[in-house]
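Posting for a labmate who doesn't have an account.
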Amino acid sequence: MLRRVCSSFLVLFLWPLLLATVIGVNAWFLLLYPQLYLSTLDEADVYHEAIHIVPQLLIDYLQNQQNNGDTTDHASNPLALLNEADGEIVITNAIDEDFLRQQVTQAVQDFFAYLHGDLTTPRLQIPLKEVSNKLRQQLQEVIHKKFQTNPNTLVNEAEVQTQVDEIFSNIPASIDLNTQVKEDARVRDQLKQVRLIVYRVRYLLIALVTVSVILLLILSAINYHQPWRILYWVGFALLPPGIIISGISMVARSRFPAVVQQRLRESDLPSQVQPLIKDTVIIGGNHVATVFFTVGITMTAVAGLFLLVFILRRKR
């Protein structure tokens, strides 16, 4: 009788403990390591799509730089001669997918290395000089061809090329996050806080896993005289958390796309990038939900197998 009472108490304590442990450990390895984010970017074909999205954003930016958003007057804003097709020519000839992938991969890996304490500072430096020179060269070639096909424009080519040079002269040679972090105390403090939280969560998860294992061993030790009863109690401990995790992941996967779409509609993000962001976030969310569902179903299946063996054993 005492063994049964102790076993029941341990199982009741193990239910929330195992639930928190399994969710926490899986979230740790999914969300705090770069693999999920990098694979999601590749699967969503972000680097390829960016080549087609950036051109219109670039043209809009260049035009707005010249005339405070009035992009229809060719005389006061000669860059209004450019269109999205021109921008795509400029981008595709100046930037390739491999460059984008390399820079993003390095940035993501370095950021998570910083969070885990492998780097003392978030080492993020994106070289812009070579890309900026290529963009300026390609843009100047496109503008030159525009003037050849539109000789009756109200402005001369030299004026436009001068404006292009002025715009690109303001682009820095690189973006160095280390410098910004050192100069901005608020950003530096925020990053330190995030790093401290990650540090604490790591040891919290270690404590949860340790306690869970110890309690499972105690549960097994209490029933050592009847080994088949160990299967019953362990299966009984695993079953509810497994069902809850698999159920939550199914609901989350079905509702997540609608939530993402709603959030994007309420945001101020440019309409050109919203479809790409939506697809990328949904793909990443589906990956997370699939992992949790697999873990939950596995726990449920193992628990069911243990309970089935126990039932069959009792019938003999």
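Reply:
Got it, the structure tokens are right above this. The chain has two domains: 2-32+207-315, 45-115+129-171.
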